[in-house]
Specification:
Shape: elongated
Structural class: alpha/beta
Radius of gyration: 22 Å
Number of strands: 11
Helix content: 25-40%
Strand content: 15-25%
Strand order of the largest sheet: 2-8-9-10-11
Order of helices and strands: EHHEHEEHHEEEHHEHEEE
Largest sheet: 5 strands, mixed
Length: 266
């Protein structure tokens, strides 16, 4: 199975509605207050402590923060709705200078993709050549969606996300999560929990899409499967909470109960 996170329908929906909150340093797309911290029943009061952090690529967090300042919307110069998937902070700076010109060139030629404009020509616009040859960002126009008909007209700008096959069995998840846990800030939270006097030690981690390879993250986000193997965490960690960004579920693992899931929005 293959999935692509950005679709024309999703992009158009983003243009017509208020943009979602950004994937900033504190990934907050899951309502933590509804699921965390766990509330013990009066008959089973036990000491519980927890730490919360996030997990994802630092470059992705930077891009998300910058696009949040733009409110994920740039002025639309032409007649069509457009979306831009931005791959880096450098791309964002360059695109803000030239995206309007490229959009008008595309619309004048009646093409929805800049790479169909003859960028290989000796007389091609240098910004167009940069976008196609050097940049990892992607611009897509939607001639069937007139910008003037949108409730909130603008060019939608979002971070570049992955695409590809979905590992519906999560067969590589445990190894990939162990690799992600090599990040220094995760080790710091492990240590803080180790130095806390409590019967239960919980670690809650909102997962950015860049935290894991696309094949595993998309399965966590879209599928109903649970990880087949326990996570590799220090012995003193009793509970691990994973909240994939934009997912309807939160995954919970405990030493006593294994893997389970909660649906805070249902």
């Amino acid at each position: 199975m293959k999935r692509n996170v950005t679709t024309p329908e999703g992009a158009a929906a983003g243009a017509s509605d208020t943009p979602a909150e950004s994937h900033d340093r504190r990934a907050h797309t899951t309502p933590i207050a509804e699921t965390w911290p766990p509330q013990p029943t009066p008959s089973s009061i036990i000491p519980i402590t927890g730490q919360e952090t996030n997990l994802g690529d630092e470059v992705a967090f930077e891009i998300a923060s910058l696009l949040a300042r733009d409110k994920h919307r740039w002025p639309v110069p032409g007649e069509w709705f457009w979306s831009i998937d931005i791959a880096s902070a450098d791309d964002r700076r360059q695109l803000k200078k030239c995206y309007q010109k490229i959009i008008l060139m595309c619309e004048a030629a009646g093409v929805a993709y800049p790479n169909r404009l003859g960028w290989w020509s000796d007389v091609a616009d240098p910004d167009l050549r940069w976008l196609v040859e050097e940049s990892q960002s992607v611009m897509v126009g939607y001639p069937g969606i007139p910008a003037k008909r949108l409730q909130n007209p603008g060019v939608t700008v979002v971070p570049t996300l992955g695409a590809g096959a979905v590992d519906s069995s999560l067969s590589r998840f445990t190894d990939e999560l162990s690799t992600a846990f090599e990040a220094p800030h995760i080790a710091e939270h492990f240590e803080k929990l180790a130095n806390t006097d409590a019967d239960e030690r919980h670690l809650f981690i909102p997962l950015h899409p860049t935290a894991l390879p696309f094949s595993s993250f998309s399965a966590l986000q879209f599928e109903d499967v649970l990880p087949p193997d326990p996570p590799t965490v220090p012995d003193h960690i009793s509970h691990l909470w994973l909240a994939p960004e934009s997912s309807r579920r939160v995954l919970i693992w405990s030493r006593s109960g294994g893997s389970a899931e909660l649906f805070p929005h249902v």
